[in-house]
Amino acid sequence: MSNSAAPSVLFVCVHNAGRSQMGAAFLTHLGAGRVQVRSAGSAPADAVNAAVVEAMAEVGIDISAETPKVLTADAVQSSDVVITMGCGDACPYFPGKRYLDWTLEDPAGQGVAAVRPIRDEIERRIHGLLAELDIGPTA
Questions:
Q1: What gap in Å lies between CA 21 and CA 61, rounded to an integer?
Q2: What is the pLDDT at residue 109?
Q3: What confidence score (pLDDT) does residue 51 get?
Q4: CA distances (Å), origin 106, targets 3, 8, 135, 137
Q5: Contact call for residues 134 and 70 (beta carbons, < 8 A)
Q6: Taking the CB of residue 5, how many other CB atoms lie within 10 A of it?
Q7: Which site in 98, 115, 116, 121 is 20 to 30 Å from 105, CA atoms measured?
């Protein structure tokens, strides 16, 4: 499958420093190039949450080089699936896009122990998303 035929998924949360970064990292890792993945925030933070970076490192995924990105209408329009994670009304809506709203606790200000269950729930949902997209995980 060429990359242009791959489905594209956008993860959105307010700060693009925790939940959306974990979602994008898991989908990138488990989708192994068979999904175009991006993430953004409606009000991006200056850096990815350190506890989130640590929690992802525990499962062998390095997101230490990632940086929060601003949400643009173009990013939404060029995505097949938009997964919102608590960004409320700040997420632009375009008819014809598939939207999923994943209600997850915000890891902001939490330690790594509190981030682990959020990370594990995101991973579980990514496995379900891959099945829905008819893409089996590689790991």
A1: 11
A2: 92
A3: 97
A4: 32, 24, 28, 26
A5: no
A6: 8
A7: 98
